[in-house]
Amino acid sequence: MKRYLKTDEWNIIEEGFHAEHQRMSESIFSVGNGRFGQRGNFEEPYSSDSYRGTFVAGVPFLDKTRVAWWKNGYPTYYTRIPRAADWSRIHLRLIDEELDLAQWDVNSFTRRLDMREGIAYRDMEVTSPRGNSLRVHVEHLANMAHPDLCLVKYSVTSLNYTGRLSLMPLVEANVTDCSELTKEKVWNILDAGATPDCAYMRTQTRHEDAHVGYALSFRLQKNGKEVAHNPIRIEKEKAVGFSAGADVKPGDTVVLQAYIIIVSSLYYERTTLVDTAIGKARKARSLGWERLVADHRQAWKEIWDETDVVIEGDPEAQQGIRYTIFQLYQTYRGDDPRLNIGPKGFTGEKYGGNTYWNTELCCVPFFLLSTSKKIVENLLMYRYNQLDKAIDNARALGIGGGAALFPQVTSSGEECHNEWEITFEEIHRNNIIVNAIIQHAQLTGSIDYIVAHGLEVMLAISRYWAQRVSFSQPKQQYVILGVTGPDEYANNVDNNWYTNYSCVQCLQTTLQCIETVADLRPDDYARICHATGFDARRETPLWRDIIDRMYLPYDEERGIFIQNDGFLDKTLQSVEAIPAGERPINQHWSWDRILRSCYIKQADVLLGLYLYRHHFDTETVRRNFQFYEPMTVHESSLSPHIHAILAARIGELDKAYSLFMRATRLDLDDYNNETDQGLHVTSMPGSWLVIARGFAGAQMVDDCLCLSPLIPPHWERYTFCVNYRQRTVRISVSRESTTLTLLQGEPIGVKVYGQVQELVKGEEVTVVK
Amino acid sequence: MKRYLKTDEWNIIEEGFHAEHQRMSESIFSVGNGRFGQRGNFEEPYSSDSYRGTFVAGVPFLDKTRVAWWKNGYPTYYTRIPRAADWSRIHLRLIDEELDLAQWDVNSFTRRLDMREGIAYRDMEVTSPRGNSLRVHVEHLANMAHPDLCLVKYSVTSLNYTGRLSLMPLVEANVTDCSELTKEKVWNILDAGATPDCAYMRTQTRHEDAHVGYALSFRLQKNGKEVAHNPIRIEKEKAVGFSAGADVKPGDTVVLQAYIIIVSSLYYERTTLVDTAIGKARKARSLGWERLVADHRQAWKEIWDETDVVIEGDPEAQQGIRYTIFQLYQTYRGDDPRLNIGPKGFTGEKYGGNTYWNTELCCVPFFLLSTSKKIVENLLMYRYNQLDKAIDNARALGIGGGAALFPQVTSSGEECHNEWEITFEEIHRNNIIVNAIIQHAQLTGSIDYIVAHGLEVMLAISRYWAQRVSFSQPKQQYVILGVTGPDEYANNVDNNWYTNYSCVQCLQTTLQCIETVADLRPDDYARICHATGFDARRETPLWRDIIDRMYLPYDEERGIFIQNDGFLDKTLQSVEAIPAGERPINQHWSWDRILRSCYIKQADVLLGLYLYRHHFDTETVRRNFQFYEPMTVHESSLSPHIHAILAARIGELDKAYSLFMRATRLDLDDYNNETDQGLHVTSMPGSWLVIARGFAGAQMVDDCLCLSPLIPPHWERYTFCVNYRQRTVRISVSRESTTLTLLQGEPIGVKVYGQVQELVKGEEVTVVK
Fold first, then answer.
1. Checking phi first, is residue A93 left (phi over 0); if not, alpha (psi -120 to 50) or beta?
2. pTM for the full model?
3. Of the candidates A357, A379, A368, which has an alpha carbon nearest to the alpha carbon of residue A441?
4. Contact between B590 and A71 using a beta-carbon 8 Å cutoff
5. Contact residues on chain B for A471, CB-CB shorter than 8 A
6. Out of B424, B479, B568, whose CB is closest to A569?
7. Max Cα distance, chain A (Å)
């Protein structure tokens, strides 16, 4: 853990320069707007340890799969989002010196990420080796209202320097690939140059032929007045921009406003990409800084108005929950079914910016409950649009007949991961996609999506399971052999309880949906059967038999579900038994040692109890929680929030709170010693889920929203809104009572502690615990 | 399977050019002498599909480990034997044409590998695009008597051509790395040039700084008379040699004899390597072809006199058994404890030329029984010399206290493989090393090696097991979790019966040896205890407890050992159920499908029954064989001979014979569709073991060699010699009787069908069945 950032309810603040944590700070201070994003790198050159990264949504690069020992079935390519051109570089030069925080004295330094406004600030006083002192103020934002626009203001005040001061805004495509695996060139530079007012560049990813265009325009002011500059154009092969300056004396301030456009062939015609970018950059410059920033602030205000969670009495928790919401919205706008959410968003290259089951597990329930926007439809459509490739994927693994196995890791729909124990065996991922479809129907109260698209996905996945299970003669039950469950510290195991259980749920809900659709929308049902070749009489008897006779490992003595066959043969001990200094174990132990230990990476059995919670009584949850939680190391960011929610639901509030803090401050406090590589973006909504589902106990049961709010003992109050079935309900929980307000929509009943409360728009209803 | 080679008892013959099988032929016609070796490539350029390869023993290259997803514990480097300079190139040029079998008409073509002499011959008549016809005769050998010397005779007769005919012998280091993973340069060329009579080159592997030097001298004759040639020297950066020629008319024959020296820094001072090579090349040239070839023939004669197996009545079997012996001796001389045997010898790059457990499993028992040379001592010393690194290796995986885990794959003693399920989990490999030590003591009748070195290895391995097992509360027994057994189609399983059983054997034999050494050689025992910090009173109680309470999965109903936990839950079916065209399954099925199938790559439970055969009655062997054999796909070359031996021992002679043929003709008939990549050298002695241990039933029981010979029904007779305890016994088995002759050594008793026969040197003893 690292705790060098200041606690503040709306800001992330680094006071004093922590060069030793520069990579972590660069992750933390990342900015983005869903179309592009970048790590919180310094604009000016920095000659010490740093990890620069700029990323453009939906522009993947196909890397050849490189493994020493090929296994049949491995994908040909590993897709990944490459680092793009570094579009926001600004060099600051004096007569014969150039600012570099690794070389200059840093007299004062503050970095601040304003989450309400979505602006990163940097303020510092620095002294050059020759004794020239400057005050520098930087503002940097990825415009939420103008999705192609990045804005940087770089303001320099001379404290004791007299002479020429030059600022050089640049777009640099001299990207060296950080992957150790390959030195392969990512970008072809098709066009690069500068007009008198606008620098531009067009780049192309190899293999994929995706294009990204950039344009850079700027204004320069001295002491508040436009400098009638005649900038030097910089037109190198891999760097374009300007050098502009002014003569200064102590007290003078020079301000550069950079208007940077980033556009890709995902949204614009590739052949005219440069013209498009230049036109947009000129327009931005003419609209001017104030107007563009005002639009940006307004966009963020709208997000916060809908999504903010207010926690009174715990500034650390308050900061944490806002940070997670902020970073998720910086990564994903929810308006394009071609995009998904990379585990590290635009903050790092790990996981390649690809789509994982994280999306359905963690982001879908957040968006479903927290916003009235149709974001989840886009996320569901993303999978639906890839169904054909999921069918191809299953066929390549020997399972045909229209069965689908959605990839573990993908960008275009093709599997791109290459660890057999994950790629081929972590097949439970199929079920969370079905679960997401069902949750969507529950929360919207509509089967429209199921009818239009969802049922096809469910059929294909159910067909997969029908072939993937096998029948054990000794057990006289169906078994699922050779899988990796959610706990990735247990590979190639048999009968992972979660996988088996969620398989049964998948088959069961598919059968129910078949009945419902056949009944209510017979024409659609006929269309679906025709399109998929589905024959219920032929196919479903086996499904029903699997549902009836699935083996679900259970320990009678302890009254717990067994994570997988053989689990109880392990030496069972708590994480306390791990020697100091050996956590996270994945950074210290060899893989075999991890595998044969009892330690669980992330919620596994408990994930099943969370997802299908109304299937289990509280005592069952408690027994399993008390058995598995002590052995869970939470080395997946997907873990703490699940445990926190269950802990709250069994009344272990202290545990729930500490796990909530782990979830919500995972990156801010660097629990897993890897924030330097980027943020855990797709897990971030988990902390909102702890508030809604854990502390407030929100769940849909029989078409009714049920709450049973709790509050951590030292909190005064927490307030958030849920959106479902065309209603918005504000929920405010204090130690004494819970107040509900229907902000939008028709009257509706909500159960609080089992009692139905009728809500009418605008009227507060308070329930005393 | 491919059957285009002719059957012959002493020769491998390809009649007619099979360009479509060129890579396979290049493997099959490989030549070597234990110090260097090469694939059966054409000397002249060949512009169609081909896989060239020349290899020098003990000169590894360190490749950086390249995996997409790093697991803690992976080794930094993958060691591999790189392709060396191509030392035996000979270009044949006419005025403006150059021989290339892919471009010229091949009127007749015969390749022949004479196994008795160790010479590869090629004879062909070819016609150039311009209609020039030539007869070419080539002889190629890696000299067994002069271990640095390669000899090539290239003889060309003009059939209708008149004009200049040039021959260009070359050493070419223009080696492009065939690994797809890396384009890294392997060789630095430190020196390259030519004196008037000798071309030379010195090369260096990067990282390792191992040097290889080459020198090439030659003679040229026309119609039997030396040509007073003044050759053109070729001194390119990466190719050195000569161009020499003669004017010919139809009927004239030009013969080039190339004398090629290959020396490495393993044996010679690196700084003077070029001088050494040149001196040796000149000396060879002066000794002359006839003398050098005669020495070579004599060396092979001595090998065959000791090791030949004569099978009467089955030329295919005869050819196969000789081929396996021949290729093993081409790869390994047994005279240097720094060398071991790469799975593909000098015939391919797969497996990197590294040491696998293949050596102890298959080569050690062959050398132990088949020769009086002290080859096995060198193989055991190889491991002993790497003990410290095996201790480091165990420590890196979290198991300290002087425990050793010998690497799965190694050259220098450091693990170099990077598949977690193999590298970290295929730990049974430790036990075969102990088994080899014990077998050596049994066959030599001496504990000298155990006292000098073996016990230290055994202690370190036993210490490993004492920590690697764990105690299962539900079973109240010791278990070994998370392993890959010999069946590599079952990864990360619990309680692999073979691993658990051989662990117990390891601990038990170590305890016995401790007692014996402490008793018979107390001073040595004290020295060993001091050197290893071994304290029997502290350490051995746990070992005894493990021996007493090891869990050994057993199925009461079937009366079989269970390969690993959960095996019986699989869908059990015979290999017959695999659809046609899907074998070998590792070339057709994705890894997960293989893992969850019942199919077994190679002998696993059956390996235990083979290695510890006298622990089990024949009925137990039969039940297990009949259960496991039908599910075994034999996709490891280590498999068929084990099954063949057991099949013979339970009286299933037909099965034994077909498995023997699979073992002995694995490469000649390309059973596994991969001979093109190289030969299965380390498995080759398995076919000799089928003769000795399977058909003849040879085993040591209570210090006595026991035989119970069988003979496949269509064989007339088979004859071979066994060497043990300073005796050589010739065993000749016909359908009617078995004749034993003590060729060397003091009188000794041998049990045949349970009856002791006293053998005296020179006297034949015949036992009628």
1. beta
2. 0.94
3. A368
4. yes
5. 571
6. B479
7. 89
Closest Cα in chain B to A474: B569
DSSP letter for each residue of B542-608 = HHHHHHHTB---EETTTTEE-SSTTGGGS----GGGSPTT--SGGGTS-HHHHHHSS-BSS-SHHHH
In contact, B331 and B325? CB cutoff 8 Å: no
Contact across the interface for A181 and B68, Cβ inside 8 Å:
yes
Q: In this complex, do B570 and A470 lie within 8 Å of one another by their Cβ atoms? A: yes
CA distances from A470 to A71, A473, A613 (A): 23, 10, 27
Residues of B in contact with A71 (CB under 8 A): 590-591
| Interface size, chain A vs chain B, as Cβ–Cβ contacts under 8 Å | 142
Of the candidates A195, A198, A193, the residue with the CA atom closest to the CA atom of residue A284 = A198
Q: Among B398, B494, B592, whose Cβ lies nearest the Cβ of A566?
A: B494
Host H or E run for residue A738: strand A737-744
Of the candidates B71, B181, B565, which has its C-beta nearest A66's C-beta?
B181
**Is residue A226 within 8 Å of residue A232, measured between CB atoms?**
no
CB contact under 8 A, A589 and B72: yes
State whether residue A110 is helix, strand or coil: strand
Phi then psi for residue A248, to 5 deg, are -125, 160
pLDDT at B179: 53
> What pLDDT is recorded for position A721?
98
CA distance B6 to B316: 9
- Determine, for residues A68 and B418 on separate chains, whether the beta-carbon distance falls below 8 Å: yes
Q: Is the Cα dihedral A594, A595, A597, A601 positive or negative?
A: positive
Strand-strand pairing, B704-707 and B748-752: parallel
- Cα A369–chain centre separation: 17
Q: Are strands A149-158 and B477-479 parallel, antiparallel or unpaired?
A: unpaired
Q: What is the DSSP string of B721-758?
A: EEEETTEEEEEEEESSEEEEEEEESS-EEEEETTEEEE
| Ranges in chain A, pLDDT < 70 | 176-184
pLDDT tens-digit profile of B109-141? 999 999 999 999 999 999 999 999 999 999 999
Tokens matching residue B615: 């622990």
Question: What positions of A carry a catalytic annotation?
Answer: 488
B176 pLDDT exceeds 90? no
CA nearest to B614, candidates B701, B499, B694: B701
Q: Which of A506-520, B205-219, B387-401, B425-439 has the lowest mean pLDDT?
A: B205-219
Contact residues on chain B for A472, CB-CB shorter than 8 A: 568-570
Q: CB–CB of B565 and A565 under 8 A?
A: yes
Q: Which chain B positions have a beta carbon within 8 Å of A568's beta carbon?
A: 472-474
Q: By C-alpha distance, which of A454, A528, A539, A469 is closest to A502?
A: A469
Buried b (16+ CB within 10 A) or exposed e, A379-392: bbbbbbebbebbbb
Of B198, B260, B236, the C-alpha closest to B37 is B260
Q: How far is CA B157 from CA B39, B168, B245, B252, B256, in A?
A: 26, 16, 13, 6, 12
Q: What is the DSSP letter of A98?
A: B
Write the pLDDT tens digit of every residue in A79-109: 988 999 999 999 999 999 999 999 999 999 9
> Is 0.95 exceeded by the ipTM?
no
Rounded to whole angstroms, the Cα distance separating A250 from A486 reads: 61
Q: Give how far B494 is from chain A: nearest CA, Å.
A: 8
Helix (H, G, I), strand (E, B) or coil at A758: strand
Positive or negative, the CA dihedral A444, A446, A447, A453 is: negative
- E strand spans, B173-290: 187-194, 199-205, 211-222, 225-226, 232-235, 239-248, 253-264
Residues 6+ away with beta carbon under 8 Å from B155: B136, B137, B138, B253, B254, B255, B256
Q: Is A565 left (phi over 0), alpha (psi -120 to 50) or beta?
A: beta
Q: Do B68 and A418 touch (CB under 8 A)?
A: yes
Q: Please state, in angstroms and rounded to a whole number, the distance separating the CA atoms of residues A151 and A580.
A: 46
